[in-house]
Amino acid sequence: MTAPRDIAQRAPGTEASHPLSVSPTATFHSPRSSSFMAGSLAHRAAAAKQLKPFNTEDVKILLLENVNQTGRDILKGQGYQVEFLKTSLPEDQLIEKIKDVHVIGIRSKTKLTAKVLSEAKNLLVIGCFCIGTNQVDLDYAAKHGIAVFNSPFANSRSVAELVIAEIITLARQLGDRSMEMHRGTWNKVSSKCWEIRGKTLGIVGYGHIGSQLSVLAEAMGMSVIYYDILTLMAIGTARQVPTLEALLEEADFVTLHVPETPETKNLISTAQLERMKTGSYLINASRGTVVDIPALIKAMRAGKVAGAALDVYPNEPAANGDYFVNGLNSWAEDLRGLNNIILTPHIGGSTEEAQRAIGVEVAEALVRYINQGITLGSVNLPEVTMRSLTLDEPNHARVIYIHRNVPGVLRKVNEILAEHNVDKQISDSKGDVAYLMADVSDVKTEDIKEIRDSLDALTSRIMTRVLY
After folding, report:
1. For 150-277, where are the alpha helices, taking DSSP H only?
2. Beta-strand pair 461-467/9-10
3. Residue 7 has pLDDT above 60, yes or no
4. What is the DSSP letter of 262?
5. Member of which family (predicted)?
6. Catalytic site residues?
7. 14: number of Cβ within 10 Å
8. pLDDT > 90: percent of the chain
9. What Rg, from alpha-carbon coordinates, does the chain have?
10. In sequence order, which residues have a C-beta less than 8 Å from that of residue 467 and are 6 or more positions away?
11. Backbone dihedral region of 202: left (phi > 0), alpha (psi from -120 to 50 degrees) or beta?
12. 225 near 240, Cβ under 8 Å?
């Protein structure tokens, strides 16, 4: 077979300017992973014919915000061109950088808006090396055939452990005592310092972090209640309460683990703080918009809330430095002046273990998508997978057709593929976007061009890729 190509073409007006060239002799090497599952999958796939749809050195990847070394190593091990920056970029610089990249990897500070993504003419996939994806315009990405992957669970333990540490620190006023000692002041007191044993922890959002935190808190002698919009099975002796108000009235410590949505904006504000026990504590390691911070400042000054720990804020600096000032958030100095408050710079998932796990999970998802078109774990496209081709199937091609989810598309696609032997095919939709994969056997270069051109001519097309 002569030099094949990865055809990655988009809806009119968004075509990639340079299709990725293919090396038919390139060899796929499974990235190393610390997980048993990844290792066993690599072993089982040893005899598979791995698709290499392009010369890997032609794939340009931009990694921002100090993505962990494990992820960088996996991507570099594929032979991709990887540019790595420790910080996020201002919008104008980001637009310039993203114009010719095929893959971008970010964490929580980089904002991939429709304005930014509209300049990314070659972009195939986005990797969010973090839990959240609210920093990406997921709808715009999906409608332009750009897959988005994240790592929703890998740092759950790290966040849960941070919250346990903050509960104890607040209960014992350790932050204040430490700062006093640093200033040379000896202040040995026990007034309003508590054990956490026997106290009630209220968890708002009983997902992966909340449920892990529940187990740790119970092991330390706390009673656990939780509120969630879904009815969820309790772990241990934890108890679900029917309303947020019921939780606030009963809990000694309230900790928040919810996503950023219109419904969770200012979830904890003046009315909710008034429902909390006098002398209770508030912890937010979820999203910065969930707590009305000026209202929290007033509640702490009034003695209603005895202490708080915040790891996230409505506006966060794009880089490390002396930026947590009133110019960023107008209440910053008032917040810093409170007693018994822990302020941390969004480090809930910032442990070596969590960042290594995130690096492996997201990088492997990117490799699977680039090389094989597999969308398992994508947050904005249908999750579609297909068994690998084998070494006994040398003249096969994998056709990927991302299209608008409108009536009659499958009939037209199958009319195009009917002239060839389709070994396997799968299609799924998510909202207005559908994703189709088909493995076609005994194809020649001219067959692939014919298939590609015919699919590109369909009015439903968002993006066409052919891998082999």
Report:
1. 156-171, 174-182, 208-219, 244-250, 270-275
2. antiparallel
3. no
4. T
5. Belongs to the D-isomer specific 2-hydroxyacid dehydrogenase family.
6. 287, 316, 346
7. 19
8. 80
9. 26
10. 6, 51, 53, 371, 372, 373, 397, 398, 400
11. beta
12. yes
Please check the confidence at residue 34 and state whether its pLDDT lies above 60: no
Does the pLDDT value for residue 112 go beyond 50? yes
Residues 307/173, Cβ–Cβ less than 8 Å: yes
- Of 220, 173, 222, 206, give the one whose Cα is nearest residue 286: 206
Which tokens belong to 164?
Answer: 């346990």
pLDDT at 2 over 60: no
Is residue 299 within 8 Å of 293, Cβ to Cβ?
no
- β-sheet with 341-343: strand ranges across: 239-240, 223-227, 200-204, 253-256, 280-284, 305-310, 341-343
Q: Return the closest-CA partner of residue 229 out of 217, 237, 241.
A: 241
Residue 343 three-state SS: strand
What token pair was written down for 72? 């960088």
Q: What CA–CA distance (Å, rounded) separates 362 from 111?
A: 18
Beta bridge partners of 439: 398, 424
Residue with tokens 């104008």: 92
Helix (H) or strand (E) holding 226: strand 223-227
Alpha-carbon torsion angle 91, 365, 158, 112, nearest 10: 10
* CA pair distance 249, 272, nearest whole angstrom: 9
Cβ(234)–Cβ(211) under 8 Å? no
Residue type, 416: I
Instruction: Please give the mean pLDDT across all residues of the chain.
Output: 89
Burial label, 317 (beta-carbon count in 10 A; 0-12, 13-18, 19+): middle
What's the one-letter identity of residue 377?
G
pLDDT tens track for 343-361: 999 999 999 999 999 999 9
Confidence of residue 47 (pLDDT cuts 50, 70, 90): low
DSSP state of 290: G
Two tokens, residue 182? 């640093």
Is pTM, for the whole model, over 0.90? no
The H-or-E segment that residue 97 falls in is helix 91-98
